[in-house]
């Protein structure tokens, strides 16, 4: 009995995720309970809220109390907003909601980033103390680490979900949820809780009050997405990571520029297969329980330009940033004073972080030229006003991914790519719809996105520069044959993954429909073969999903 209870308790060495056997046992138990109460909506929502909280406990220990705190605060403030017509009070309430959510996010995710910035700027060596851990360990016998502030899994996802909910209630785009358990279920629904997609209240909350209606076709479609996502994760992402990519990025100085370049290409496929694989499984699990989640990926490496790429990649985050950051800042109409303050802080932060006189000098010259152009040239002022918010939104999107200058630069490079493409469209001397232009556009976009991932993958700034250095000064093209022969299995998996990715969407939709409409025996047979295949290629231990760290 005690061994059974140990399996139910949190184990940091075996976190609960879709690639673990324990998860599927847990989900089978959830479905059994779900089948008994699914017709009683209030009970169903409360039940799924409770099992979602347990899921979060298994992935992030007692940080489920933090999730409950955010849920309680936003439920209370939204209900208060709903019941008052006084505009000043509504503004104060939505401001309080955003402030509390951002404070929680910044404390757990960004406090060390700002502590390092304070040390670099003012010479104050301030190290944050995890008071919550000291207090909880002393009073409740928990064993939180006391030497650092731990990062709760998925905090960025559910924080953004909470913020969008209260802002939408403030804007009167939705009604506040009356039942706290219903609202808790919306925030914590376990398939998408820790790695998205970020679900809008206007899309999901109406489903809480709709009767369960899953026919055989819907169940088959859910099964397709689950198998599709697991195959992406196990066969593409994990196999490439363990057998090639992680080796190169762990010690880039031991590998040539050619090997580093190929590993970087492989990482572009890995991060897509890993993240989209998670959301595919989440969408499939939700379908089985009668819920529809937001589509999060649409074959992003088919994009012919950077703008199209961000319409296809992590679509729930791109839409969130557009509606709650880009448009409030002024959109493509004008830059607000907030835009310019944030831009100045970003430049100032770069100067402090790099800590080189020449960088500070270059930035000072650029700021001076910007000021002259802005004051003296109306066309320059207009161009700045229509583009600064794009750059800031992408910088903030990069910062959302992680508390380091690597992620900020990654976001900034993508923002610059969006701006450059915007002006290139005006002067390009060819028809962009021509098939050859489309092919070249896809290849150039893939190369650019892959290049920016240097700063997404490398753990440190120096590590990213080391990767750049290997690819600019030590390519050793003569080793290409040896590299391909030495890593022919990962190279074959990469080529196969890209070919599958580039299959036309009409063909993909057709075989999805055929699978969903196939007989139960056919679906069962394909599922067994898929599971056996994954068992053969699976690495020794289940690899954590990349976006769990965000």
In short:
By secondary structure, the protein is an all-alpha fold. It has helices at 2-8, 21-37, 41-60, 64-82, 87-122, 131-140, 155-170, 180-188, 201-204, 216-250, 257-288, 306-312, 315-329, 337-354, 357-376, 378-401, 405-427, 435-457, 461-473, 480-486, 488-501, 505-517, 520-537. Helix 10 crosses helix 22 (505-517).
Keywords:
23 helices, mainly alpha, 550 residues
Question: Can you give a write-up of this model?
Answer:
The protein is mostly helical and 550 residues long. The protein is 73% helix and 0% strand. Helix 15 crosses helix 16 (378-401). The protein is globular and about 65 Å long.
For the termini, the CA-CA separation is: 36 Å
Count of DSSP E strands?
Answer: 0
Mean pLDDT, as a whole number? 84
Radius of gyration: 24 Å
Assign a percent range to the helix content.
Answer: over 70%
Classify the beta-strand content into a percent band.
Answer: under 5%
Order of helices and strands: HHHHHHHHHHHHHHHHHHHHHHH
Question: What's the story with the biggest beta sheet?
Answer: none
Shape: globular
Query: Which stretches are low in confidence, meaning pLDDT under 50 for 5 or more residues running?
Result: none
Structural class: mainly alpha
The tally of helices reads 23
């Amino acid at each position: 009995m005690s061994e059974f209870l140990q399996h139910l308790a949190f184990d940091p060495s075996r976190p609960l995720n879709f690639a673990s056997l324990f998860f599927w046992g847990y989900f089978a138990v959830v479905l059994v309970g779900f089948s008994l109460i699914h017709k009683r909506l209030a009970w169903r929502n409360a039940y799924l809220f409770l099992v979602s909280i347990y899921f979060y406990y298994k992935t992030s220990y007692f940080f489920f109390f933090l999730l409950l705190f955010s849920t309680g605060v936003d439920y209370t403030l939204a209900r208060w907003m709903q019941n008052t017509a006084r505009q000043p009070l509504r503004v104060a309430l939505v401001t309080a909601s955003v402030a509390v959510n951002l404070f929680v996010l910044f404390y757990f995710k960004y406090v060390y980033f700002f502590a390092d910035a304070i040390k670099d700027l003012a010479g104050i060596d301030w190290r944050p103390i995890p008071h919550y851990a000291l207090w909880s360990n002393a009073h409740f016998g928990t064993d939180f680490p006391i030497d650092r502030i731990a990062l709760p899994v998925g905090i960025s996802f559910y924080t953004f979900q909470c913020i969008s909910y209260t802002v939408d209630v403030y804007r009167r785009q939705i009604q506040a949820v009356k039942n706290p358990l219903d609202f808790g279920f919306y925030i914590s629904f376990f398939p998408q809780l820790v790695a998205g997609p970020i679900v809008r209240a206007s899309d999901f909350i109406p489903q809480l009050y709709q009767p369960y209606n899953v026919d055989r076709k819907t169940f088959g479609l859910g099964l397709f997405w689950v198998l599709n996502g697991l195959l992406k994760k196990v066969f593409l992402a994990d196999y490439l990571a363990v057998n090639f990519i992680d080796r190169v990025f762990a010690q880039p100085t031991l590998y040539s520029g050619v090997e580093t370049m190929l590993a970087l290409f492989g990482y572009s496929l890995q991060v897509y297969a890993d993240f989209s694989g998670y959301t595919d499984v989440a969408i499939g699990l939700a379908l089985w329980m009668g819920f529809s989640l937001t589509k999060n990926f649409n074959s992003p490496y088919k994009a012919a330009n950077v703008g199209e790429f961000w319409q296809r990649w992590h679509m729930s985050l791109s839409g969130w940033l557009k509606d709650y950051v880009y448009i409030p800042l002024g959109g493509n109409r004008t830059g607000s004073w907030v835009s310019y303050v944030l831009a100045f802080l970003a430049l100032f932060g770069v100067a402090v972080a790099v800590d080189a006189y020449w960088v500070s000098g270059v930035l000072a010259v650029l700021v001076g030229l910007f000021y002259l152009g802005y004051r003296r040239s109306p066309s320059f002022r207009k161009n700045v006003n229509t583009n600064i918010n794009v750059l800031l939104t992408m910088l903030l999107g990069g910062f959302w991914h992680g508390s380091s200058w690597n992620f900020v630069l990654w976001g900034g490079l993508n923002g610059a790519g969006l701006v450059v493409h915007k002006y290139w469209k005006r002067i390009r001397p060819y028809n962009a719809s021509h098939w050859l232009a489309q092919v070249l556009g896809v290849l150039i976009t893939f190369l650019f996105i892959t290049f920016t991932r240097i700063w997404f993958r490398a753990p440190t700034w120096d590590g990213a520069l080391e990767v750049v250095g290997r690819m600019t000064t030590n390519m050793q093209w003569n080793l290409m044959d040896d590299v391909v022969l030495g890593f022919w299995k990962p190279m074959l998996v990469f080529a196969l993954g890209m070919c599958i990715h580039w299959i036309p969407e009409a063909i993909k939709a057709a075989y999805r429909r055929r699978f969903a409409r196939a007989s139960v025996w056919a679906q069962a047979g394909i599922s067994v073969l898929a599971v056996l295949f994954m068992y053969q290629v699976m690495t020794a231990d289940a690899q954590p999903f990349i976006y769990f760290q965000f």
